[in-house]
Amino acid sequence: MVITTKPKKPTTPPMDERERARLVEAFIEGTPNGVEAKTGKRTPMKPIPVRFDEDMRGRVETIAARRGQSAAAWIRMVVSQALEAEEIR
């Protein structure tokens, strides 16, 4: 008999299925991770330095973790949504 360690519990709460579906749809439509939808090839991404105070950075990281994303991925997603909303006007 092999003794193994107890699996670690996930640190982020499970995501609501509707929220997960919305994120998947946004990912497919907007490709926020820099992968072009038609070719599947990664498009070059360039950094834009942005500074946050400690409070805002903590809030961003908390929300991103709740969604199972990195802070950078969440910021790209939110900026992408804001750009789309602005372009529709």
Core attributes:
single chain; 89 residues
What is the helix tally? 3
Helix share bin = 40-55%
**Which shape, going by the Cα principal axes?**
extended
Which H/E pattern describes the elements? HHH
Which structural category fits the helices and strands?
Answer: mainly alpha
Number of domains: 1
Beta content: under 5%
Main sheet specs: none
Query: Poorly predicted ranges (pLDDT <50, ≥5 residues)?
Result: none
- Determine the oligomeric state from the structure: single chain
Count every beta strand, where a strand is a DSSP E run of 2 or more residues: 0
Indicate the mean pLDDT: 79
Walk me through the structure.
The structure is a single chain. With 89 residues, the chain is mainly alpha-helical. It has one domain. It is built from three helices and no strands. Helix 2 crosses helix 3 (71-88). The radius of gyration is 17 Å and the shape is extended. The termini are far apart.
Q: Brief description of this entry?
A:
This protein has helices spanning 17-30, 54-66, 71-88. The chain has 89 residues and is an all-alpha fold.
Topology of helices and strands:
Elements: H1 17-30, H2 54-66, H3 71-88
